[in-house]
Backbone:
């Protein structure tokens, strides 16, 4: 199965790189504060909210079924695996890269003690990703859970989708465009409660940060 099935494939290039600093820099959860922010998006500020009657999916996998083993079976071997447990207890990140048509994807799948919590898919191009393409991506995500006539008039690429289990898919338009996934399983509140008391104690800075001058 293709890594990223948002668009038909016309060209695929290997995303492999030997420079681990790239992935460490791209890691969206560097510390406890990042973790708490990632898994608790502010949905009140989302201009386009959607409630799905279907369970939310990533790559045809229900969030509750996402494990490191299932991800590897479904998507193949990752290009990089990062053990971030020195900064966030029990934290591991699995990375995938791919190119589909002229879109570049960097996907990072986050686990705490082998339990899935968060995915971020960064989507970019060789130039600036246009608003038209951002809307196209948002509509493609929505099309997995809603009928075409429901989404045809979408006028915002900033969307938030929830399901009956309070799982979330949301887009984030920053320097790059992201599609993010949050698993609101029963373990999530335990994780939040555990880490909330630590959020001011750990900056996430490791020896790695001293090597970044070579790469940025």
Residues:
């Amino acid at each position: 199965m293709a890594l990223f099935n948002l668009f038909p494939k016309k060209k695929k290039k290997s995303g492999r790189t030997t420079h681990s600093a790239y992935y460490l820099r791209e890691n969206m959860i560097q510390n406890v504060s990042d973790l708490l922010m990632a898994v608790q998006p502010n949905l009140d500020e989302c201009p386009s909210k959607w409630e799905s009657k279907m369970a939310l999916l990533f790559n045809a996998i229900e969030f509750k079924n996402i494990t490191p083993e299932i991800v590897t079976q479904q998507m193949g071997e990752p290009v990089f695996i990062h053990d971030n447990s020195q900064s966030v207890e029990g934290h591991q990140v699995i990375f995938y890269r791919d190119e589909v048509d002229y879109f570049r994807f960097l996907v990072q799948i986050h686990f705490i003690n082998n339990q899935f919590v968060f995915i971020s898919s960064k989507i970019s191009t060789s130039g600036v990703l246009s608003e038209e393409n951002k809307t196209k991506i948002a509509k493609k995500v929505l099309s997995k859970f809603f009928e075409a006539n429901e989404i045809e008039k979408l006028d915002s690429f900033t969307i938030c989708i929830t399901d009956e289990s309070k799982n979330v898919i949301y887009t984030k338009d920053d320097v790059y465009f992201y599609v993010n996934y949050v698993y609101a399983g029963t373990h999530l509140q335990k994780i939040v409660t555990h880490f909330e008391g630590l959020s001011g104690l750990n900056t996430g800075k490791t020896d790695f940060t001293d090597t970044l001058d070579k790469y940025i």
